[in-house]
Structures are given as C-alpha cells and as structure tokens.
Amino acid sequence: MxxxxxxxxxxxxxxxxxxxxxxxxxxxxxxxxxxxxxGQARDLSTVTAIVSDVSLSHSAQVAGLRAYLDRLKPxxxxxxxxxxxxxxxxxxxxxxLGATRTLRAEDAARGLVALLGEMTRTVSxxxxxxxxxxxxxxxxTRIFELGRSGSPLETSVIAQGTELVVDAVNRADxxxxxxxxxxxxxxxxxxxxxxxxxxxxxxxxxxxxPLDCRQLTQAALLHDLGKSRIPLTxxxxxxxxxxxxxxxMRTHPELGHRMLQDQGYPDAMLAVVRSHHEALDGSGYxxxxxxxxxxDLVRLITVCDIFAALIERRPYRRPLGGEEAYDxxxxxxxxxxxDFVRAFKPLAEAAGGVMVVAA
Length: 359
Known about the structure:
Strand content: 5-15%
Mean pLDDT: 85
Shape: elongated
Largest sheet: 5 strands, parallel
Low-confidence stretches: 123-127, 355-359
Number of strands: 5
Distance between the termini: 34 Å
Number of helices: 17
Order of helices and strands: EHEHEHEHEHHHHHHHHHHHHH
Strand order of the largest sheet: 2-1-3-4-5
C-alpha cells in the first residue's frame, strides 16, 4: 500500500498535520531527532510522497532530515518542505535538500492535501543520477582525450557535458551528485565533476540566470583542462608531489588557457581556466593577481574548487565532511571572497558528512 512519509522534529506540533494526512491514506511518522527511530530499519519502499515538518534553522534538524531523505535515493518521491521560517535562508536550504515544492507551515492545514495530490500527479520521474553522471564523465573523457592529442575541442561535447550536469543537479540534490562522483577512481575526473556539480548547485542557490548558470558550470567543467597536458606519472601519482612535480602541476592553468584561446570562448571563461588558483592577497598562481583583478566568476569557481578538493578522496589523506571543509574555507581570510564563502554555506551543509565507500 502507498504511504506518505511525515518527517518531524517535534511530533506534538505535527499531530494536527498528521491527522490531515491520515485522511489521505497510510502515514509513516518519523521524528528525525529520535536516535531510537534512526536506528530502526524502517521499510520506506512504499513511500510515494514526503512531507517535512522540520525547522531548517538548526544543523541537527537539517542533518536528521537529510539522513532520511538519503535513504530514499536515487529515485526519491516528491518532497514537500514546510517552511517554519519564511526566510531566504530557509528557502535556499529547502532547495539544497531537493524539495519538489515548499509551503509555509502556517498554510499547511488548508493547502497541504491538495498540493500533495498535484505533486504526485505531475512530478516527472526522478533523475537517474548514475546515468547522468556517467554520460557527463563520457563527455569529460572525450574533452581530455582531445586535450591530450592536441586536437581542437568539440564545442558540442562541452555543451552536452554542461547540460547533463546542470539538469542532473537541478532535478536531484547536490548530495546525490556527490555520492556518485565520490566513487570515481580517476581523481582528475572526480575533481572536475565535483567542481562542476558544486558550481551548478551554487548558481541555482544564487538564483543566477539560466545562461549564467550554464556558463559557470561550463567554466567549472573546463577549469582543469590544462591537466590533460600534465604527464600521467605526475597527474596520477598516489603520494604527495615533490617540489619539481608540484612546479609542473602548477603549469596547468596556463596550459588550459592556451588551449582555449582563440577558440571563441568568452573572456570570463578563459579567466576561470587561467586564474582559479589565484588568491585575493596576491599569493596565488600563475600571475599573482590581487583582489581587484580577480573577476567574480573566478571567485565563485575558486570557492567550489577548494571545497571540492577538501571533500574528495585522496590516497594520502582522508576526505573531510562538509562542515569541516567549510570551516577551513571560512578560515581562508584574505585569500577567498568572504561574501561568496558565506553564500556557499547552505551548499556545504547540503553536502553533509564524509563519504562512505562500501567495503
């Protein structure tokens, strides 16, 4: 029998809401802050819709909510998120969690059942995130193959990869994207796809225009293109690079910039490829640019690039969880744009804990 899943952080408050939902059929009610319920293997296979009656203003509630949402991937049913705080932060958080629709909690009594019915009738099938990422990686593989061979890059392949990333992140959530990409063996591909997914999610969170969103994601997908010209012995080295190897690796921004020059790409994208390792205090490379010479698009990608590097799997260190990685990013005062770092926080929270790889 089909069921509605009601997730709450305050069961007493949700009693009236539950009575409305029970009139529509079977109801599963779970307190996301109850550790006993969290340890139970509840059967969620019959769930056809999710309602969140959880406050999004505290990290513990958000983490508890995400834990149950994660159990319903990769084909999660429609998700209605009630907003107890009608603020831009709450709306951004709901979006980052992958809410299909939002509704003010005070309007739930009169609008909930009708909205749920509309959602379950009209929602499109959940994105096959694994297939989408596989196709995006195929496009990325082709881009790097062309880069290594010295052949002109195929703009259609780049555009296809960009569309796959944007569409998948818009229809799923950023954690679903990360969960799959983390399992890639090729570290360069893993990193480029992590940065591209984070950039697409960041663009959506900032409510950028669709054209700007695609440009940002495309720049993220190509930001490490120059690594296609780095010797594989250095690129795939399982240990830390020595001084000489690090110097060779640090040529990749200039190499990538050179590969894209005079190919019809906008200056903003060329700037991302060349300058994503620059720092506001002038300590970055390859040009030692200072803040006034670093465009906003570069600053956005730099935040995504650093965060991705901190949460990704590396042979010589453990990956960090979203909160720990964000704390490091926040501590890079003077090197990264503090306004963009603050705006990135909901995405970092949505990234959640450290990845878990099955044995």
